Every structure is written in C-alpha cells, then in structure tokens.
Amino acid sequence: MKISVVKTTTPKAKPDQSNLGFGQFFTDHMFIMDYTEGKGWHDPRIVPYGPLEMDPSCAVLHYGQAVFEGMKAYRSPEGKVLLFRPEQNMARLNRSNARMSIPQFDEEFALKAIKELVMVDQDWIPTAPGTALYLRPFVIGCDNVLGVRASYKYKFIVILSPVGAYYKEGLNPVSIWVEPHYVRAVRGGTGYAKAAGNYAGSLLAQKNAQAQGYSQVLWLDGLERKYVEEVGAMNVFFNIDGELITPDLGDSVLPGITRKSVLQLLQSWNIPTVERRLSVEEIFQAHADGRLREAFGCGTAAVISPIGKLGWADKSIEIGGGKIGEISQRLYDTITGIQTGKLDDPFGWVVEVEG
Length: 355
Ligand code: PLP
Ligand code: COI
What we know:
The chain has helices at about 60-65, 85-100, 105-120, 195-200, 205-210, 255-270, 280-290, 325-340, and strands at about 5, 30-35, 40-50, 65-70, 70-75, 80-85, 130-140, 155-165, 175-180, 215-220, 230, 235-240, 245, 275, 290-300, 305-310, 315-320, 350-355. Strand 15 (about 290-300) and strand 16 (about 305-310) form a beta hairpin. The longest helix is centred in the N-terminal third of the chain and has 14 residues, at about 85-100. By secondary structure, it is α+β, with helices and mostly antiparallel strands. About 25% of the residues lie in helices and about 30% in strands. The two termini are about 20 Å apart. The protein has 2 domains: about 5-165, Aminotransferase class 4, branched-chain amino acid transferase, N-terminal domain (D-amino Acid Aminotransferase, Chain A, domain 1); about 175-340, Alpha-Beta Barrel (D-amino Acid Aminotransferase, Chain A, domain 2). The chain binds pyridoxal-5'-phosphate and 2-OXO-4-methylpentanoic acid. 2-OXO-4-methylpentanoic acid binds near residues 233 and 301.
C-alpha cells in the first residue's frame, strides 16, 4: 500500500521546550488508515493534524472499542532520528486489538507509516534534556450503530506530541497511594491490553489519591487486593535487600516494554531480579525492617520514576529519604542514554529512522 501525503499549508509555531508538560501540544500532521470489513486496511495517508469527523452514533463513543500505544522518538547528538524498540509496541497493539475484537494490522507496514510521519514532522522532536517526541498510535471502532457488537469499520490513527517529564516532579520521587477498594483489572479481563477503558476505569481512584496529595495509584490484584500489580501508567520495581522485585505478568498487568528493558539491563549488570507475587504487606514489612532500599515505576511516558512515599490505609512510608535511589538513577541514565543515542546500544534496541 502506498501512503499518500498531504502537507499542511499553515504550520504551527513550535512550543517552548522548557515548558512542554505531557501531551499538550500536537505536531502539524497525523497518520490515518481505515478498515472496512471485507476490504481490510486501506487508504493509508499522512494529512494535516485536525479534528476527526464522526457520527454521534460512532461505536467508540458508546462502548469504548479503542486501544492505544505510547512510544517516543529522539534526536541523537549527531542529528539522527531514533525510535526505541518500536516493533514491541506494534506487537502489543495487535495483542490489544485481538483482546478488543479489533482486526489485526500489518506491523511492518504500520511501523513504516509511523516512521514516515515522524520524518514529516521531525522538526518537532525536542532536544532539551528529558524531552522527546511522544507517538500515540490508536485504533477505534467506527461503526455508526448502537447494537453492542464489534465494529466492521475502524480507524488506525497516529498523532505526535513533543513532551517533557510525565510527572511535574520530573526525576524527583513521586508519592503513590495503594488503592484499597477499586481495582484496575481482574483475571480474564482486559488488564494486559492497552485498552482505553482500563484508563477510564482508573480515573476515580486517581482523582481520590490526588485529592490526598498523591500523584498516582498503586493497583492491587482484583481478587484478594493483597498483591501489587502496577501503577496507573507504569510498572513497578522494589529493591529489597539488593534484589529487584517486580510483579509477575499475569493477564491483569500491562507487559511494559520499559519493564522488560529494565529486567534485561539489571540482569546484564548481575543485579538479582525476580518476577513474582509481592504483597503490599511484605513491602511495608521490608520497610519496617530497614530492607526496602528503593522503589520506582517505569514506562515510556514516565521513563524511570522514583517512588518516594507510599501510602496505604492509615500508614505511609518514606522510601530513599526523598532522593532517587542508586539503581533507579543508573537505570534512568542508561535507558535515556541508549534511547537518545548518547550511549552504546548493546541490545540492539534502537532503530534509526531514515528519510
Ligand atoms: N502500565 C500501564 C498501565 C501503562 O499505561 C504503561 C505505559 O505504557 C506501562 C505500564 C508501561 O509500559 P511501557 O513501558 O511499554 O510504556
Ligand atoms: C505511556 O507510557 O506511553 C503511556 O501510555 C502511559 C500513559 C500516558 C497512559
């Protein structure tokens, strides 16, 4: 399939790189491709960024048949445009599609389209430390019908946003609230998919946590509400006595690409890692015993985000004395170094976009 390109005639002014926030600015172009049952994916196109026209009965607006991805493009010191493990995002998007009854797409073709879009808007890739161009591919069900069933029509869209740190804290530790009542996902549910509805269902708990001064929620398992799963937009690691523990992936946790990369890096440094069930009780006990050395979340948007305070019921603990932990800092430096082409890439994670 050939990707058609229509360039904007009214390019926007670029935002100030020191004040990007997260996902507030959008570039000049976007990618769209349609799906029609019986015809497959068709009409791939890069067009000026702008509103979508939709019928009010459009399926996604009612039953939330929507999935998305989050990736970043970086500018290396030599001026190259780099992506980090993008094939992993494409594979995960197809797994999310499968769970939400959305048809599969050709991953190689979608990645090619994403690369082309990034090259069209490459002047939007910010270069200030801690910034990147965030890529948001998403797929939505587009039938105009109120019957509850999988759509026959879809749109695959990619938009781009120059971003800074996800949390206003930047690399400073964030406060996380252990959610005792609401759950994010259950066994057999949609937790492992990057489905829009997972995020809609999380907003109330997040709002409640924020009202108490916390940034995000740490979700517990949906059955016993005892075991740690993940944070709103990040997977989590706890350093107990020098062993880096992260919850194992069932079908209720999002299999993060940063999580996978962190595990690979730690293993390459001969730092012990384990993926297993970890109760919040065990974390608080480890803290009481002086064995909880550091905790951090990790994700594309958040990169490595140290957890400085954990609140649970009527207790709260401070981790790492308000500072980023040694391993968290090393991971942050290494991952961002590899992503931005400033450090060697021994794992072959980085893909150069040539245009
Ligand atoms: N968990 C959730 C719920 C997320 O939204 C994200 C962000 O994508 C992650 C974990 C981290 O995944 P990744 O490292 O692939 O960005
Ligand atoms: C990401 O890290 O890419 C995410 O999708 C997290 C969040 C912005 C939903």
